[in-house]
Amino acid sequence: MENKTELYTLVLSGLSDLPSLQLPLFLVFLLVYLMTLTGNLLIVLLICTDSHLQTPMYFFLGTLACLDMGYSSVTIPRMLLDLLTQKKKISLEACITQIFFIMFFVVSECSLLAVMSYDRYVAICHSLHYTQIMHWKACVLLVLGVLIFSMLYTLVHVLLLLKLTFCRLTPLQSFFCDVPQLLLVSCSDTFINVLLILITAIVIGGGIFVLTFCPYIIILNTIMKMQSKAMRSKAFSTCSSHLTVVFIFYGTALFSYFHPNAKDHSAVDTVVSVFYAVLTPLVNPLIYSLRNKILKISLKRAVRRLLHI
Predict the structure, then answer these.
(1) What is the rounded CA–CA span in Å between residue 236 and residue 245?
(2) What are residue 35's phi and psi, to 5 degrees?
(3) pLDDT higher than 90, residue 223
(4) % of the chain surpassing 70 pLDDT
(5) Would you state the pLDDT for residue 257?
(6) 176: which of 11, 32, 120, 206 is 20 to 30 A away, CA to CA?
(7) Cα–chain center distance at 159
(8) Torsion of Cα atoms, 231 then 233 then 238 then 242, to 10°
(9) So where does this one cross the membrane (predicted)?
């Protein structure tokens, strides 16, 4: 007969069971975390202090940087603690809390990328009316709408998780708490949870996916009709950074959650999870800063101002 004793403490499998790797991994990911915070915070500070960057495009970019800082702060500090102490235990309440914030930041970023696609569509396809359409009130309302939607979406999933009982001693095959892994250690009926995940992934996730990529069909058509080569090059450059971030985000997310045999965790899954949860928030500011001339110029101005102080 299966043991139905309710668990209040869960175990994370972590990145590695080898004691000799714990300290090197801790140092590497501590450096990654500090670089992530520094890169994203630098973008936020540049946007807030440079009047040339106080436009809708950079407002959304600054919001994305804040979400990346929040997302990395939910996963990496906990991972660093486990690497340092090698305990890898987490209370059920802390696990569900981590899931809440991870889902909130992921859905917020996913939705914000769709908003940024719309912003690029208006800027390129309706450039003469850009300031009338993408005024500050509209930008703020779009971001607020993203945050409220993400909060409500996350609450529905988390409230259903709180009704489950967890009694299996199987470790969560990850270095952070995630809904699919948590459902595997539940001894309750998880049919409703799984059904909700599938429905929301297809309807809401599919809808956000379409809203993110469909504008680029019109954008590319508009760019191809431009007679000036310089205008085409400028239009492509404003979209390339965003598209790169979108492909990285969706590519790693789709592999993490929808690849075949998702239950059979492997080293490849761990690597993809690290990239998805740890490296993506680091890569985003690098992509935008390296491919954006205006950000580079703003950074040079900021450095010159600091040197003259």
Answers:
(1) 14
(2) -65, -40
(3) no
(4) 93
(5) 64
(6) 206
(7) 22
(8) 140
(9) 25-46, 58-76, 96-118, 139-162, 190-223, 235-258, 270-290
| Distance in angstroms between the alpha carbons of the first and the last residue of the chain | 73
Residue 289 has pLDDT above 80, yes or no: no
- Alpha helix positions (H), the chain: 19-49, 56-85, 92-125, 130-133, 136-161, 179-184, 191-200, 206-225, 229-258, 267-274, 280-290, 293-308
Instruction: Copy the structure tokens of residue 193.
Output: 């949870």
The pTM for the full model equals 0.90
Average pLDDT over residues 44-52: 90
Question: Token pair for residue 289?
Answer: 């800063």
Joined tokens for residue 22: 């714990």
Helix (H, G, I), strand (E, B) or coil at 90: strand
Contacts by 219-222, CB closer than 8 A, 24 or more apart: 219/120, 219/121, 219/124, 219/125, 222/124, 222/125
Spell out the residues 6+ positions from residue 288 whose beta carbon is closer than 8 angstroms to its own.
Answer: 43, 61, 241, 245, 295
Report domain 9-308's class: mainly alpha
Structure confidence by residue, pLDDT tens digits, 76-134 = 999 999 888 878 888 889 999 999 999 999 999 999 999 999 999 999 999 889 999 99
Average of per-residue pLDDT across 269-287: 83
Beta bridge partners, 172, equal 12
- Cα gap 70→150, rounded to integer Å: 14
CA distance 266 to 102: 22
- Whether 295 contacts 46, CB under 8 Å: yes
